[in-house]
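Input/output pair, single chain:
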Amino acid sequence: MKNMIYKYLVYVIYFLGIGMTSSGIVLMPFNAVRYSIILIIGLSLFLAGSIFNEIVINQHKMTAAESVKLIALSLTLALGIGMISGGISHFKESPIYVAYLIPMGIVISFISFILKNNLKLPKKEQMLMYSGVVAVASILFIILFFSASSSSMNMTPGGDIFKKMDMGQH
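Output:
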């Protein structure tokens, strides 16, 4: 039963961490101090979940080098996923910024995932896979950038969540 509770707690910590990381990254241009704090808390939660998962649940005895690798790759994985998730959720609030965030998040999270999980492929397949991810990210950037720049989409930076509403109007 203790192991089940630990696994649940790790999932809660991971998802809270990613949620806060997503918000912190994408909304930072609107309030750098507030959203930097949220970003740091989110990254700290995700990192704590990763460490807890490895040490307590998997009972992995890590060397100093493995610990540094886990920390670095957990943080870059959380940042990359946060860039994707936050970008999708808040495209309208900052469309040009998000046009960069999502593709970069795909590349960062993909590479971090491969390295964190020590996944190995033959060189040819590895190059094909990385080239494919960069190609998809590049195409996505072009689509997002032109969508954000298009006057027909009515993308005013700041979006809906930052509009001041008059409580008397609906």
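The chain has a mean pLDDT of 88. Residues 2-159 form one domain.
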